[in-house]
Amino acid sequence: MDRLIEAIDNTQNPSVVGLDPTEALVPPQVVASFADEVRDSVESPEEVESAQLAVAYFEYNRTIIDAIADIVPAVKPQIAMYEALGPAGVDIYTMTCEYAAQQGLYVLGDIKRGDIGSTAAAYAHHLNGVGDFDPWHEDAVTVNPYLGTDGITPFVEAAAEADKDIFVLVRTSNPSSSELQMLDLADGTKVYEHVADLVEGWGAETIGSHGYSRVGAVVGATHPEEGKALRERMPHTFFLVPGYGAQGGTAADVAGMFDKQGSGAIVNSSRGIIGAWKKSGKYSESMTADEALDLVASSARQAALDMRDNLRVAVYR
Ligand SMILES: O=c1ccn([C@@H]2O[C@H](COP(=O)(O)O)[C@@H](O)[C@H]2O)c(=O)[nH]1
């Protein structure tokens, strides 16, 4: 986690921009501008729509990365948005990760994998690549702990080998998360608290120079009280905090998830940043694709600055 913590220190900004493109979030003239290029390059007419969206997603992502790379430490591409387009989307996912890394950003791949040990070892190649080849360009990935220790160990080993990190789902931000995570265990703890204890243990051998291990935890901004208690319970575990902005979480909600030095967490916003152009009041259907991308860039930058400033007030107090 040392590289992430140092990137946060350098920008004085504990926030990560989620790169979760959807058709509704990309201005339509940007998608339309790739029609001719794509029609000439695909093998069958059925592929046109996914190929066109994929190239539009990359242009959109590149515009956003260029607009925020000097003020945020990290990005979090959500692989589901890319996989939804098939192979063309997966290519764009890796190209997005590579481009973000080239701009100096820490790349947190939100892939939420988890399986039996032998299969988890294959998924863990997201971190340690294939030989000397790193096809994914991620600095960290998210992992699902439902299968227990043998599903996590391959990720921890791959992270240690490649000097990378993982973030394990502990207390997720979504409305139904309590159905499982808040269940009581026989010893009086909740399921998510037990997972939190496992996560501290999984990371124990990998604590870096800033006191945090390679094994982070996902803790939703929508659970401020539990997040604060988890901060105490997990002293060596860095938090990825989604749920800010579009899901209702605020800077005040996440403040308790940081340690006394103002470290220990990074807060994600995806739609709140990349979709800010839609709420700017400046968009017009008559804009050219370049004008629409300029608006995407300026709106994303302003939203990222606002988030940074709100977090600074709440966290670096
Ligand atoms: O508990 C969780 C775990 C992951 N996520 C992911 O974070 C982003 C949130 O997007 P917003 O647009 O800022 O709501 C998205 O990729 C989720 O899959 C989460 O929200 N909660």
Automatic annotation (TrEMBL):
The enzyme's E.C. designation: 4.1.1.23
Entry keyword Lyase: yes
Superkingdom, taxonomy of origin: Bacteria
Keyword Chloroplast belongs to the record: no
Pathway noted in the entry: Pyrimidine metabolism; UMP biosynthesis via de novo pathway; UMP from orotate: step 2/2
Keywords: Decarboxylase, Lyase, Pyrimidine biosynthesis
Protein name: Orotidine 5'-phosphate decarboxylase
Originating species: Bifidobacterium longum
Gene: pyrF
